[in-house]
Sequence to fold (591 residues):
Amino acid sequence: MVGGRRFGTRLVRLYLPLVVCMILMLFPFYWMLITSIKPNRELYSQKVMPLIVHQPTLKHYYDLLSETNFVTWTYNTLLVAVVTTVVSLILGTMMAYPLARMKFPGAAIVAIGVAATYLVPQPLLFIPMADIINRLDLGNTLTAVMLTYPTLLIPFCAWLLMGYFKSVPRELEEAARIDGASRFQAMARIVLPLCTPGLLSAGIFAFTLAQNEFLYALIFLAKSDVRTVPVGAITELIRGDVFYWGQLMAAALLGSVPVAIIYSFFVDYYVAGLTAGSVKS
Amino acid sequence: MAVGPASIARPAPAVDRRVSPRRVLEREGAFSWIMLAPGVLFLLAFVAYPFFYGIYLSLQDRPVAKPGLFVGLANFVNLAHDAVFWQVTRNTFLYVAVTTVLKLLGGLGMALVMNQAFRARNIVRALLLLPFIVPTILSTIAWMWIFDPTFSVINWTLVNTGLVAKGFSWLGNATLAMVAIIIVNTWRGIPFYGISILAGLQTISPDLYEAAAIDGASINQRFWHVTMPIIKPILIIVTMFSVIFTFADFQIVYALTHGGPANATQVFVTYAYDLGMSAGQLGMGAAAALTMLPALILLIIGLTLYLRRE
Fold:
């Protein structure tokens, strides 16, 4: 029974570990989903079997959308994420292009500076930044996070794009220059179109980073109508010692949807962005 | 003016040698710096300036909304005499060390499993990466409920399978709270390691394994002598990135335990947040945040040197 033995090996080496992996990684999402559709009498009972829903309800979603500012938070989160992603992608491209393809005085210092700002974590900066935002009188405005998120996103985009820009052969650009294209035209018409996958990777990664940001949003956004989803959920759906678990889970699930949709369409670009730093191409 | 072959043969008109914006832009240096300027200026204003301003703040007694008073290194001296600070240091190093080992082993395991051919592999890969994609605070909210003192699903399972008589107070007990934040950080980080290592494994040519097998190498030998040397650079880079970001972790600890119970899970960033934001002592908070700097600098220099050598 060669076939049987082969299946046995596959079972031990592939299917079993794969199922364990999937359960461990995905259970919290399953838990999020079923908690969000359980009625309170099932949620807060130790007698009911908790792993499945007995009488599903959409009440928590209804309450979340009608009683809290969740819709506003979602709008804020998406607005900030889109604006900061676009700005960071443009400025990141403008930095990465000369660093990857030109020789000029100061290039090495700027390249090291970009790497350093990418690696220096936000926690070193948040306290002085809070004071600076206060002095600029930008507390409780979305401008505050729109100004600070690019500090995380620009170095990342520049870092990632440098690798892509380096991979375009110099001859292509030179041919365009001989045909009379300016440096800017050679970049915009020759190199950038060839680097579309890199630009997509950087953009999608930056978008998820912006959605994931929490520390600056927590510090700068203290009023309900300017909050983002993570800050709104953690500060307003937990009041004192009272946790609105059903609504919390509904918020967590709905809040993850925009990222999950974008991600599902561009998963290959996301993975490319993820591994670009660690795998030599 | 007639445009004909003759005009091409003519030497370049003298007008073009004048300095026009267009011509300046054609110089490599000028073009580069004009492109760089907005980004560089932005990063100077919002990264470099806050960094040095943070150092300046750390030398002050500076309550929120009041003028600061220069106190030299007093904030750092205070921290050094504070038992909580040393507890925070121990917690952070423990948190980073344990999660890093678990993520490395888990990620390697995930990558080895995923490196086999099977149907729907791309979909499985996409699903397994979800913990890393979903905003951390939102997935941590799910974990808060999983660790709930009364309605924890882990406790329910343990009690109902008869493994324990009474459920644990996951976030109320000093040791278990540390275990909880380690679990969540590991859960979120494994896909990053797994998918990165998988990308490395996929660069290994099957010929190498065949050659090794023909030479009589066992599975173990093939792993240590073929796989490992090839993915070692990836392991090192992924680990160093992850250590830097775990060191600076805030979200999981803030949401799950707020550093409690009794500072048992307090790490550098939540501690700096409590001092600087909750207690409003900007100077002390900035000083606490800066105590991370020496370890971070070592890590960053190490990573930069390694990347350069590769």
Summary: Chain B touches chain A through 99 residues (CB under 8 Å).
